[in-house]
Amino acid sequence: MADPISGAAIGALFSALLTEVINKASKPARFRTLHEHLKITLTEIEPRVDEMSRMVGNRPEEAIRKLIDYLTNGKELVLKCSTIQFWNVYQIYVCVGKLKRLDKALRRFFQEEVPMKLLSTNASLMNRVDELKEKVDRLLAIHGAVGFPGSCGVPGLPEVIVGFDHRLAELKYRLLKDDTKVLVISAPGGCGKTTLAKMLCHDKDIKDVFGQNILYLIVSRQSSLKSIALNLFRHYGKNDCVFQTEEDAKNQIENLMREMGPDNILLVLDDVWSESESIVQQLRFQIPGYKIMVTSRFLLNSLGSTYELSLLNHEDARTLFCHSAFSPNAIPDGVPDDDVNKMVEFCKGFPLAHTAVGASLCRQPLFKWKITLKKLSEGQSILQSDKRLLHCLKTSIDALDEFPISKNCFLDLGAFPEDKHIADTLLMDMWAELYNDGKDVDNASEYLLKLSSRNLVNLVPIRKYAVELQGYENEHYYVTQHDVLRELAIHISSQEPISERKQLFMEIHGNEFPKWWTQKTEQPINARILSISTDETFSSSWNEYDLNAPNVEVLILNIRSKHYSLPQFIRKMSQLKVLVVTGYGTCPTQLDDISCLGSSSSLRCIRFEHICFLSSVHIIFKLRKIKKLTFVTCKIGDVIPHITLGQKRLDRSAFSAIQVLRKACNTLKVCATKRHYTLPNLTDLEFDRCYDLKNLPAGLGNIAQLQNLSITNCHELDALPEELGSLSNLKTLSIHSCTKLQELPESTGSLQNLQLLDISDCLSINVLPQQIGELSSLRVLQMSGCQGLHELPESVSKLLQLKDVICDEETSYLWKNVGADVGNVKITVVEKDILGSFMKIIR
């Protein structure tokens, strides 16, 4: 016979859970927001639990035991969540899932096992549980939207959606039918397929069926089973998976899906091209509760059920158009209602056309409307094909005629592969060289904002700081573009003959070069920006294919093969200023030969992304005009650390002696011996997510003009060179998320021009240099997430120019202990949310 259960036992367990939640909610835990909601929920249900405790004698013991299990497991779960570190995104994800399942179990308990009398009193509790579930869902949706590497979370929804409610209901009905295994949403580009798919994923009924197992991937024309498998496994924190073949990738995906059972699974594949139809076929696994939803501009009838998305009716189309064209939505005086109706008719129900064309006419005078209507009236029907849509959307680009540089910037975006995130800093550097003669990089952001305000690009935040730092760029973006708009850019750029185009974009499949290239005409290419994309089967041999392009200023190489050599015709590009080399394969592309860069006398900016380097990389560090070097997700190994820049690297004691001698010479006004510098024009050096970078190049201090040094997410970096202090012109030093770095060199105090220092999320730093007080120009110090730091050196009181300190709550107490000496410093305490994706001010 089971032991008797007392009401007092239930009350004690409930009190213990409530106490833990209150304690954790009052501390800077990673689940602070969730704990606050749990505290409110538990406080509200406390009287109901007391009532159940008094009714123990009238309740089946089994139900009471279930309630005790929920309370016991809830306490253990809260305790476990409080121990998870903010950087452990996977464990946070797992813990959130468990909390959601606990919510679901509690709701089922109160719905099915509590008497109706109590159930009616618990209506407010159920509302709180639903609200909590929705908030967690929104957090997870944000996690997917910010674009974490490998994330398969569902992106967020547009601000305004018109005319999709009945479509959503029909689509939901068809997806949930038992015999539906694969459902395809098909329509021409710009009809809203992706929006409808996102709506479905965010729908409450769909979430109740599939829960956390909704996986969302964009499938481009170049996608493979390997790339899909890589994203899926990264989504679950498995970053070290290797897939030998396409068949191996398929098998491992199937095993992953089976491990997720017995829960239902929804795999959403967005923007699938006809070339990728076979990939979807291979992802059709015979797993109970497993479904696939595909969006495509093609009719992929062989996959299964197809939902053909219709265009907007006139009423919905007019509503959407007016929202984009007028602010507020009321039609202003002077714009005839008939003109609005005609414009809506010309857009022919394409949601993207209404949004883009409406934005191009927003706040424009009446004559602009007349001119646009006249141009549209001369075109053919927009309903017949995607080309008609491109013709319609061209009006949004014609609106940029008065801003010719912004129009060229829009056309430049065709140089990048579809469905890829482009760093805004890359575009700024590129456009500064093309249109500002290498000056005013910050002003180039105006071109991007102009395109964004007209809905021609989307901006996705990369990292958002908690405060506005006056005089500093505190927010960066990935730039994305709808594939139809990318096609529009390519379409417009290709209207001129090959030799006369300013933007020349080429895609090479296998080794099939364009005919105009293989004919080897003597006529030179006059393009200023050249983009060459090669696929996985490209042989990486350029020997037989010369190219005469003397006016190219920006060269963008998009690579998918495992090995690659830079084309030798780069030697002839005497005007080349910007080089962007990006690997898009599952593994970093091995760059076998870059010797041609040795003769590139005009190069100012080089960006390598997802590249594996060999010993030839030393050539880069001999280019005298280089202003900016960027390495992103590159496999560095021992190549860069073994490069010696200028003089021999000094140990700490030798460096300190030279510093003392140099100061003495300055005091006595004695002329020191002329020093040899390397990279004399380099102002920016960046390493981001270079996971095997352990050391920086020897002689780093010889880069005399360096102003910005950024080393972020390099988790193997364990030391900085002592000669860092020789960078006398350094203004910003960002060492963000270098988790093995234990200290800054003492010479850091010699950086007299340093204005911003970022050591946030450097978990292992346990001490700051005693000489940090000598940073006489330091204005901003970012140090949130420095968990190993337990005290500040007394010299921080000498930082007279320091205005802002951004830190977490633990670190803020260290500054309070310093006392009134830093009374003019603004201490901003920030907290990362449970997914570590954004930061917010909490006081």
From TrEMBL:
List the Pfam families.
Answer: NB-ARC (PF00931), RPW8 (PF05659)
* Lineage top rank: taxon: Eukaryota
- Known Gene3D superfamilies for this protein? Helical domain of apoptotic protease-activating factors, P-loop containing nucleotide triphosphate hydrolases, Ribonuclease Inhibitor, Winged helix-like DNA-binding domain superfamily/Winged helix DNA-binding domain
Domain RPW8: start-end pairs: 1-148
GO molecular function (one) = ADP binding
Its GO biological process annotations read: defense response
UniProt entry tagged with the keyword Cell wall biogenesis/degradation: no
Record-linked SUPFAM superfamilies: L domain-like (SSF52058), P-loop containing nucleoside triphosphate hydrolases (SSF52540)
Keyword terms: Leucine-rich repeat, Plant defense, Repeat
Family according to the record? Belongs to the disease resistance NB-LRR family.
Q: Which protein are we looking at? A: Disease resistance protein
* Organism name: Artemisia annua (Sweet wormwood)
